[in-house]
UniProtKB/TrEMBL annotation, chains A, B:
Highest taxon, organism lineage: Bacteria
Family membership: Belongs to the GST superfamily.
Pfam family, one: GST_C
Region forming the signal peptide: none
Protein name, per record: Glutathione S-transferase family protein
CDD domains reported for this sequence: GST_N_4
Domain GST N-terminal: 2-84
Domain GST C-terminal: 86-203
Amino acid sequence: METLRLYDFLPSGNGYKIRLLLTQLGMPFDRVEVNILKGETRTPEFLSKNPNGKIPTLEIEPGKYLAESNAILVYLSECTEFLPYDRFSRSQVLQWLFFEQSSHEPFIATSRFWISILGKAEEYREAIEQKRKPGYAALSLMENHLTSHIFFVGERYTIADIALFAYTHVADEGGFDLTQFPAIQGWIERVKAQPRYISITQE
Amino acid sequence: METLRLYDFLPSGNGYKIRLLLTQLGMPFDRVEVNILKGETRTPEFLSKNPNGKIPTLEIEPGKYLAESNAILVYLSECTEFLPYDRFSRSQVLQWLFFEQSSHEPFIATSRFWISILGKAEEYREAIEQKRKPGYAALSLMENHLTSHIFFVGERYTIADIALFAYTHVADEGGFDLTQFPAIQGWIERVKAQPRYISITQE
């Protein structure tokens, strides 16, 4: 098998999902840093790899690319302990992955991007304010779930946890206060205690 | 097997995805109309089925629910002609499903909701204006892909087509002009020509 090549941006939670899973799977990979702040995902060369101009993009073999962080998580975790085999459990994992992309990431990750990556909290003040309510709604839903579950699906660590962990554990960098969510905090510690855990900015 | 019960809202493209696939699979189902405009997804009773308060929600067997339209599509299509068996092709289907939820639906479906479902184009004028550029970017990406492909993955009709068709074929109801996208128009006709096709408001 060819070595996987990950087009990535170190501060990105979406990129971190893939780095974390690959590391926990023990799969070697080459990381190519693409600076999204300098327009490097908008060059003709990068758009030939992913026409949507986004990282992470995974080169599975020379010239064969897969985009969308959560689709990459599923691809890499099939037939591993990180994705349940049971049909309904696997569908629940997918449900959380779609929840993450539609009800969580657009609010929590975007706020973090404006505040902590771009450093433009003042410029985006009104937009950030609009993200507060739906962002806290996503966190409250997670908190309720984690009050009676140790992980998101099947009481074991799966890619649903990886996908939701990526931006939740740095939600404070987007101005979200996690101290009011004790079940989330406990879950964050359980994720950090997993074998071969790496932090978000660890290459 | 129990009869599936679909909690649905007839004008919803996300609900339509499931109605269309179930009909094309020839699977009988009960449809329960939930009027999202009257807060019926926010009642304690509905939130006990889907804590995220959204349709579609599928009751697979009594008390067992699955949410997120695209997760439901995958659940229903496994081991059918609507989802490729090959690992990479299946991942490409997922890539398009996540693209639909992150780069298409938030702009095109939301504009349609404000303009044609709520009938409040004037009230949401500024927000609609902000959705124009990313919405057209999603359509342009689809147009480029369809210029050299008859369907999204593997040159055959899959749930990737169903997911993208749902809001694309009614994009004009969100103020998007499809006449400039001939490849999309040709694809829309190919989808409509599929066996057991039903229209979006056909129960």
